[in-house]
Amino acid sequence: MKLPFVNERPGVWAAAEAPIHEPAGRVQSFDSFRARSYVNALDGLRAVSILLVLFHHVPRYSAQHFLHTLQENGRYGVSFFFVISGFLICTLFLREEEKTGRIDLWRFYGRRALRLLPLYYLALCLHAILVFGLGQYTLENQALFKEKLPAYLFYYSNWLATATQGPFFFAWSLAVEEQFYLVFGLLLFFASRRVVIGAALAALLVKAAVYGLFGNMDVNSTLWRVVFSYQEPVLLGVLAAFALNCREGYRFFRRWLGPSRAPACLGAATSAWICVHAMRSQSWWDAQLLYLLMTLTLVGLVIRPATPVLGGRFMTHVGQISYGIYLLHMMVISSAKKMPGGTSPALCFFFSSITVIIVASLVYKYFEHPIIRFYKKKLSPLDPGTAARVLATTAALAASPADSPNNIAKAPSGAT
Fold first, then answer.
1. pTM over 0.85
2. Which pLDDT tens digit goes with each residue over 248-307?
3. What is the DSSP letter of 15?
4. DSSP per position, 344-374
5. What is the DSSP pairing of strand 6-7 with strand 407-408?
6. Nearest C-alpha neighbor of 69 from the set 285, 294, 274
7. Are the C-beta atoms of residues 72 and 278 closer than 8 Å to each other?
8. DSSP H helical segments within 37-76, as ranges?
9. Burial of 182 (C-beta count, 10 Å sphere; 0-12/13-18/19+)
10. Who has the most CB within 10 Å: 27, 224, 327, 377?
């Protein structure tokens, strides 16, 4: 898991204000945080998330290998995308309402559609060609793809019992994000902030209680798969956004996560949990703890103006193209497996990562970015005059993506 807000460079609000330069690692003030439209570390977190997903999908290490648990838990890279997505989308809405006095749902949905749908349907067409035109999959997988094609077309594959099976299976997480954009936008438009926060908290507690008492009750029930199709990390990201966009909440997290060692400790705890503990299921207590650690890590980073390593050029670039990587990575991995040494997890991961980053970079430059520039110009949440000034300034900022304050005018790539 992108839209115009905290991470879709170049952003729409960034140029309206001069960049604020503060020492890396130091916690910024609430006013500085609110003035920024680019969060240095978020693209880096996206990069980490998509690399975890790639590592999860290459050939498996043996159960005795020291990297086996990390590889199995690589699927939770999608969960980090969900946290980022919830945080960014909610922050986008809150800041748009503050700056313009209202939330323009039609423009929001237009931006989301232009950002996500063109590349999504292009990737779906490529998979259809591989399945039906070139016969690159088994007859069983071809039949499964044909059966699931309507779900892929209309973003409800996460409701199917076969959500994680067959060609293009990874679309389940994109369906989750699209459903979130639709429902959360409507909820925030029609309900009070207190109701939205209460609904998010209630949804978290209910799902945790139900799955804790009755187990994965959605396994054999379409009804429960639909009812509980929302993802806890998204809701935690939403709650983090509400907290940080209010002065008292920001002050609370600044007090507890302000020490310079806090982000490193949280990142280390998150990494250790992924590396050493095999998660039971996505809604069990161990996964819930992981989601909480991910959310606190994100909060500890976004209250800082800059973050070493995660905010570097390479990680920023990988994060920016992560949507393309996510949509293309399985085709690249499938090809890499057929090469000499392709069954080696390490070699397959190495060659697949390099290849998909190159391909996704080209796709971003020649396909995604022109569309982004179009919708930033036509569907900006700002007035046309301000949007024009922003677009003029982004040309100067584009040469230095790591320093560009355009992140919150971007949204998550949802890779999940």
1. yes
2. 999 999 999 999 899 999 999 999 999 999 998 888 899 999 999 999 999 999 999 988
3. G
4. SHHHHHHHHHHHHHHHHHHHIIIIIHHHHHH
5. antiparallel
6. 274
7. yes
8. 42-57, 68-72
9. middle
10. 327
